[in-house]
Amino acid sequence: MDINRILVPVSFAPSCKKAIRTAATLASAFEAKLYVVSVYKTPTSYFQSVGAMLFPDDLKKEREDDIKALDKLLEREMRILKLSSLDVKDIRIEDADPVKAILDVAKEKDVDLMVIGHHEETKLERMLFGRNITKLVDGAPCDVIVTRSHLFKKHDVKSKKDEKAA
User: Fold this and answer.
1) How many folded domains does the chain comprise?
2) With bands split at pLDDT 50, 70 and 90, how would you rate the model's confidence at 46?
3) Which residues pair with 34 in a beta bridge?
4) pLDDT at position 24, please?
5) Exposure of 20 by Cβ count < 10 A (0-12 exposed, 13-18 middle, 19+ buried)?
6) Coil, strand, or helix at residue 22?
7) Strands 33-40 and 88-94
């Protein structure tokens, strides 16, 4: 299997860090180029009250802060992995549908592998944002590796049979 170009979509979800580490490690092992893509969508104000209004200067500052935080995250992860010489191309996309934008980059850059981070979602997250990971895996023009991060502690629930036997 020839892997020359790897794409990792990033956000600030907790699962992002593991995906970056996996993608960077694979890129280093295969001497591949690593594309890190982030998509920023300007929030929509649903309520036109003073508490919900978003002001252009606030949005600009928020975006600048996000860019700095993402740069620090990537820098830190490359330093931890001791991969400072890795060929990393940072792609930032503004105001686009995240799934479509990521898939477009994958096709445009002719990537061989996509590494996606995934974590458990609450019912509310699923309702509000949908299942983007499914759309990415189904629409990807290449192989996909999904890394998992557990956010919620799994409880050891005994079945009724176990309780009766005890």
Assistant:
1) 1
2) very low
3) 6, 88
4) 94
5) buried
6) helix
7) parallel
In a domain, 159, yes or no: no
What confidence tens digit (pLDDT) does each residue in 147-159 have?
Answer: 987 655 554 445 5
In this structure, is residue 105 part of a structural domain? yes
Residue-wise pLDDT for 98-112, tens only, equals: 899 999 999 999 999
Can you give the residue range of the structural domain that contains 29? Answer: 5-154
Neighbouring CB atoms inside 10 A of 142's CB total 16
Whichever domain contains 86, its CATH number is: 3.40.50.620
* DSSP three-state, residue 154: coil
Length of the chain as a residue count: 166
32 near 7, Cβ under 8 Å?
Answer: no
pLDDT band at 40; cut points 50, 70, 90? confident
| Contacts for 62 with CB less than 8 Å, ≥ 6 apart | none
User: Would 165 be classed as within a structural domain?
Assistant: no
* 126 in a structural domain: yes
